[in-house]
Design a protein that fits this description.
Elements: H1 2-12, H2 16-19, H3 27-39, H4 41-48, H5 58-73, H6 79-94, H7 96-111, H8 113-120, H9 125-128, H10 133-143, H11 145-155, E1 162-165, H12 172-181, E2 188-189, E3 197-199, E4 217-219, H13 224-231, E5 238-242, H14 248-257, E6 262-267, H15 270-282, E7 288-291, H16 299-303, E8 308-314, H17 335-352, E9 356-366, H18 375-383, E10 388-396, H19 398-401, E11 406-413
Helix pairs in contact: 1-3, 1-5, 3-5, 4-5, 5-6, 5-7, 6-7, 10-11, 13-14
């Protein structure tokens, strides 16, 4: 099944999390394998290249990639099982003739696995840590070689699931004790936000965590709290959360409003409204959800013409701060995509700033580490809006903060 999922990813470029949505049987193993192949794709292709003269069909490529990942990166999978599973999958994908080819490749790879791992460690950073050169070169220029490598290594770690508590109804010490009583040993307060966030033990299903049905927490990285805290919504405020799905930041804002004021959460994508609606219902948050494009000049007609005290502009971006959670996104990065995203980001800002009250606050945020989407974009855009003042900017560098990467800028209107 892992090979079939990887083949669909290679053939359609669909998101791995979408492909895994309906999977229940052997879910943890399949997630580790599919995400691992997406994460280590370049390293795996480098390892396979000496044994594969001509790339086979995508369905067979997927079998080889899965087998290679299990041989080189999954110590708990016996080599003979990895070889056998890859060969059987290739036979189903391409027939008996392909099975012989796959058997030869996998057996040679298994025999040379120790040497391949050793040689991989001597390859250029993009190969050994499996990143496109365009990103490696950008990060080395921006952060220096040592920090660029640390960032690549961080993005290749398997992420821990983090939950953020509704601190009106749950406190970290007491909730940790509740997790311990439920047998979830290994849970710990997150070092970046020990007052609000808890790292869960590996392998725990979030639906089994106490307080799920009560809406006491959300799955949410601590990095997301920075933008909300800069926004500083207060009781009675009218607040707009643009690009709100799946709703983590909206839930934080709703908690700050504490049943007063008004919170409008909008998102343009119909398929993202479902998770937003589910989270709003589970967290019992008074939020008005609207499907709309934040760039639409007619947006006031859809959400009301009254101006907002606070606007959170959490724009779509290249995701370079969250490759640990979205490993496939690294292969979609390009200079052209970066430029296109920046155009969208500026258009959203331009449309939303007219909805902000004089004296109001707007926070622009991304989960990107790229200056063109962050510091540079805000600086250039602000020069066109002298009535706004940039009061504070925050950048989270994952290896330093042990969080996702993020950028947030607080802009106030005179």
């Amino acid at each position: 099944m892992a090979s079939g999922l990887v083949a669909r990813w290679l053939g359609t470029n669909d998101f791995p999390d979408h492909l895994l949505e309906s999977i229940t049987r052997d879910r943890a193993f399949l997630m580790e394998t599919v995400y691992g192949v997406a994460r280590r794709r370049r390293s795996l292709e480098w390892a396979l290249r000496p044994y594969v003269a001509h790339p086979p069909a995508i369905s067979v490529q997927a079998c080889l990639l899965v087998g290679a990942y299990q041989l080189l990166f999954m110590d708990h999978v016996p080599a003979h099982a990895a070889v056998n599973d890859a060969v059987e999958a290739a036979k189903l994908a391409g027939g008996p003739g392909v099975a012989g080819f796959a058997n030869g490749v996998m057996r040679r790879l298994a025999e040379q696995a120790a040497r391949i791992r050793q040689e991989l460690g001597t390859q250029p950073l993009g190969v050994r840590e499996s990143f496109p050169d365009v990103l490696v070169h950008r990060w080395e220029a921006q952060f220096g070689a040592v920090r660029a490598e640390a960032l690549c290594r961080w993005h290749n770690e398997r992420p821990r699931t983090v939950i953020r508590l509704d601190r009106r109804r749950a406190k970290v010490p007491e909730f940790l004790a509740r997790l311990q009583a439920a047998g979830m040993t290994g849970a710990a307060a997150h070092p970046f936000r020990p007052d609000a966030c808890i790292q869960l033990p590996a392998g725990v299903s979030v639906a089994e965590v106490p307080g799920f049905d009560e809406g006491l927490w959300m799955v949410q990285d601590p990095a997301t709290l920075v933008a909300v805290e800069l926004l500083a919504a207060r009781r009675g405020d009218r607040v707009l959360d643009a690009c709100a799905a799946p709703g983590g930041k909206a839930m934080c804002i709703a908690e700050a409003l504490d049943g007063s004021g008004e919170l409008v959460a909008l998102d343009v994508h119909a398929d993202r409204l479902g998770p937003l609606q589910e989270n709003v219902a589970r967290m019992r948050a008074p939020v008005r959800i609207v499907q709309a494009d934040a760039r639409d000049p007619k947006l006031p007609e859809q959400i009301g013409r009254e101006l907002f005290d606070r606007i959170l502009v959490d724009v779509p971006c290249t995701n370079t701060g969250v490759f640990r959670r979205r490993p496939d996104a690294r292969w979609r990065f390009s200079a052209a995509r970066l430029t296109a995203q920046a155009r969208v980001q500026k258009a959203i800002l331009e449309n939303l700033v007219r909805l902000l009250k004089p004296g109001g606050a707007m926070v622009y945020s991304t989960c990107s580490l790229e200056p063109e989407e962050n510091v540079q974009l805000v600086g250039r855009w602000m020069r066109r809006h002298p009535d706004l003042k940039s009061e504070r900017q925050v950048i989270l560098f994952p290896p330093d903060t042990q969080t996702d990467g993020a950028f947030a800028a607080l802009l106030k209107k005179g």
